[in-house]
Specification:
It is a single chain. With 275 residues, this protein is an alpha+beta fold. It has two domains: 189 residues, Alpha-Beta Plaits (2-Layer Sandwich), CATH 3.30.70; 80 residues, Immunoglobulin-like (Sandwich). The protein is 14% helix and 35% strand. It has six helices and 17 strands. Strands 10, 11, 14 and 17 form a four-stranded mixed sheet that branches. The model has no long low-confidence stretch (mean pLDDT 97). The structure holds iron/sulfur cluster (SF4) (2 copies). One iron/sulfur cluster (SF4) binds next to α2. The site of one iron/sulfur cluster has 14 residues, from α1 and β3.
Length: 275
């Protein structure tokens, strides 16, 4: 049986927020019996997270749309009882009647995808616009209004989706939880990792074409060359990893080394001086 999935391309997301605004517009003040109670302007069941890395002249930003993952082994359902159900098409719905007053459901989702609507005393998730899908829509409003097609809704057999995820290198959030998310991400790596980068100088000037190596615990793990501005960058350094050092050299201009202190919790931008 075919089920719904959402594929999000982080590299294509421009943070325009159309998806979040359209979702709020769809639900704020509107009740869809059997699907969702009225939403509220301050309850964002679909939002766009901003991840900024680096400092000074070496900064980048990635935007990651976040919402209910419609997990196949959903932790929320283990707590929710008959207040939460999964439809045959994979969509997870919090019953607006049975969920009333169930504030405990907010903490039952390890992704923070269940929001508390205080005015209605309701826990609410992004329901994949199931009320529209059941009227024949081929995608939720969030995907429909995305100008870059960063969001794509796909109704596929699970085996087809698994094959696609493998072929395209798609990732899910918190894979270690084994919740079976139906929301997949492309180009997620840089948003959830750090970089070690910087600049190589000699005699006060930038060094182009310097050979730069990244070592971990004394073993080389990556190599690159500085660009015309003397800049270099090693991406996808795991959050919290440690034991790194940078070694740079340029024929005729000497060599230099910088040890990266402590765990890499934020991206590091350093200057390596050759002498
Ligand atoms: S509408 Fe598309 S591009 Fe805009 S924030 Fe949402 S996912 Fe990103
Ligand atoms: S993301 Fe959270 S709310 Fe959605 S199905 Fe998974 S555990 Fe439940």
């Amino acid at each position: 049986m075919k089920k719904w999935n959402l594929v999000i391309d982080v590299a294509a997301c421009t943070n325009c927020n159309n998806c979040a605004v359209a979702t709020q517009d769809e639900f704020a003040g509107n009740s869809f019996p059997g699907y969702s109670g009225p939403g509220a302007p301050d309850v964002r069941t679909l939002d766009v997270d901003r991840h900024v890395r680096g400092e000074g002249a070496m900064v980048d930003v990635h935007y990651v749309p976040r919402m209910c993952n419609h997990c196949d082994d959903a932790p929320c359902m283990k707590v929710g009882g008959d207040a939460i159900s999964k439809r045959d098409d994979g969509i997870v719905i919090i019953d607006p009647e049975k969920g009333k007053g169930r504030h405990d459901l907010v903490d039952a989702c390890p992704y923070g995808a269940i929001k508390w609507n205080d005015a209605e005393q309701l826990p609410q998730n992004w329901i994949f616009d199931a009320h529209l899908i059941d009227q024949g829509w081929t995608e939720p409003r969030a995907a429909h209004v995305c100008p870059t097609r960063a969001l794509r809704a796909l109704k596929l057999e699970d085996a087809e989706m698994s094959a696609l995820a493998q072929a395209e290198g798609l990732a899910v959030l918190k894979p270690e939880l084994n919740t079976g998310p139906r929301v997949y991400y492309r180009n997620l790596g840089p948003a959830l990792s750090q970089f070690i980068g910087g600049n190589v100088t000699a005699d006060g000037g930038n060094v182009e074409g310097a050979d730069v190596r990244l070592l971990r615990d004394g073993k080389e793990i990556a190599a690159t060359e500085t660009d015309a501005f003397g800049d270099f960058r090693f991406d996808q350094v795991a959050n919290g990893s440690a034991g790194y050092s940078l070694h740079a050299k340029r024929d005729g201009q000497g060599a230099g080394q910088v040890d990266i202190e402590g765990a890499v919790e934020t991206s590091r931008v350093v200057t390596v001086v050759l002498n």
